[in-house]
Amino acid sequence: MALPLPARATDEILSRLAALHPKKIDLSLARMERLLEALGHPERRLPKVIHVAGTNGKGSTIAFMRGMLEAAGQSVHVYTSPHLVRFNERIRLGAPGGGRLVSDAALADALDRAEAANAGAPITLFEITTAAGFLLFAEHPADVLLLEVGLGGRLDATNVVDKPLASVITPVSIDHVDFLGTSVEAIAGEKAGIIKPRVPVVVGAQSPDALAVIERAAAKKLAPLFVRGQQWNVQEESGRLVYADEDGLLDLPRPRLVGPHQIDNAGLAVAALRAVKLPAAHDAGILRADWPARLQRLAPGPLSARAPAGVELWLDGGHNAAGGAALAHALCELEERYSRPLVLILGMLGTKDVTGFLQPFAGLVREAIAVPVPGEHAGLKPEDVAAAAVGLGMKASVARDVGSALDGIAREAVVPPPRVLIAGSLYLAGAVLAANGTALG
Questions:
Q1: Around Cβ 124, how many Cβ atoms within 10 Å?
Q2: Which terminus of the chain has fewer CB atoms gathered within 10 Å of its CB, N or C?
Q3: What are the DSSP calls for 161-225, one per residue?
Q4: Residue 29: CB partners within 8 Å, gap ≥ 6?
């Protein structure tokens, strides 16, 4: 019997795998299907799968589903992307009483096996790491796998699962236009590509144009639809979450996750689990759900210590126009509870619509401070981000990093201490968490 491989630094393996990326970038399932066949089709040995696509809210919706399932005693695998600090965050292995992030040793072993089966052929990093994730999920027993789409849906590497328990589509908006199209209709078509024949489709709030595309796709596949505003609904009433569908009414606690948009995400999670009749402890699950860098209060640490005394320091990975609108709405709600001057520290990738993201903040922000996105990412120049803010009538400046931005805020005497939001990129959010020593798990 072969001895288990020793644990190794996964970063070295991931760097080697990244070099296999095809010279021409194209979304395709052919490479994934070839590799999975070489691995013995682990995608056919997975537990029950709930497949989640959409533009915004995928991770939070999954966090709510996981919380409700685990609170009911279910063992839940989770696959999400991107990670914030460590690659291991993408793969959570279910276990009684609550799952755990994959260990370095188990991840390295699965990546090694996927690399050997791929035999040097061109493949994207997301495809080969998804295949490694399927190996782990197939080999560790669990009741449910919550599977998040990486990009789009129709040609995403996760879309090789041919018979999920349910397909879930969160709100669709403009993002990743280079790959998915420039219209909401085109993007909705890509997201609706996860719909499978006769598999229930649970749909969050959508624009009329996006919903029409999803409805047509479901009709072609004879897939039952559970649409917000039709088969189910959710709203906040007197500080509670009230959910209703044809099976009855649920009066639930308001989520710990901050912002009105989390009411929507929690409602979609409830709808998905009720549509497929999975056991769920709704009350306990909504309260235990946690999802880093989604309006997260930054804990005490080396980075947060550089902020002014008494400051409210928030972190969010929002990076598109719809995300900006949701964040601005949430901050308006915070402002109504307790008024503070708002300072926005912003770093964004070059592929994002900075003006679209910032537009909802016009009139709310005392100052915008633009910073670079750390690492080898195609980030916008801070000067360009600041110029976009100025174009919307905001006071704006540039800092060399988030720490320097916080230093500058600390030098100003502002009463009351400001509310500071760091946003614009999940890569920036991950760098902030790492610099602050905030543990994830």
A1: 22
A2: N
A3: -SS-SEEEE----S--HHHH-SSHHHHHHHHGGG--TT--EEE-S--HHHHHHHHHHHHHTT--E
A4: 155, 157, 159, 160
Sequence-distant (≥ 6) Cβ neighbours of residue 208 within 8 angstroms: none
CA distances from 175 to 92, 179, 210 (A): 26, 9, 14
Region(s) of the chain under CATH 3.40.1190.10: 10-288
Topology at the third CATH level for domain 10-288: UDP-N-acetylmuramoyl-L-alanine:D-glutamate ligase (3.40.1190)
Q: CB 407: neighbour CB atoms within 10 A?
A: 14
Question: So what's the pLDDT on residue 5?
Answer: 41
- Region for residue 63 given its phi and psi (left: phi exceeds 0; alpha: psi -120 to 50; beta: otherwise): alpha
Position 319 scores a pLDDT of: 86
Q: For the chain, what is the largest distance between any 2 Cα atoms, rounded to a whole number of angstroms? A: 68
pLDDT in tens, 270-279: 999 999 999 9
What's the CATH code, domain 296-436? 3.90.190.20
ω into 141 cis (within 30 of 0)? no
What residues does CATH 3.90.190.20 cover in the chain?
Answer: 296-436
Quote the DSSP letter at residue 102: P
Residue 228: alpha-carbon gap to chain centroid: 20
Which tokens belong to 311? 């400051």
pLDDT computed for residue 191 by the predictor? 95
How much of the chain is in helix, strand and coil states, percent to nearest 5?
40, 15, 40
Rounded CA gap, 6 and 190, in Å?
40
pLDDT means per 10 residues, the chain with 441 residues, are: 46 87 76 97 98 95 98 97 94 93 95 96 95 98 97 93 97 75 89 97 96 98 98 96 97 94 97 97 95 93 94 93 92 93 95 93 95 85 96 96 95 86 95 92 74
pTM, to two decimals = 0.93
Of 169, 232, 176, 234, the residue nearest 202 (C-alpha) = 169
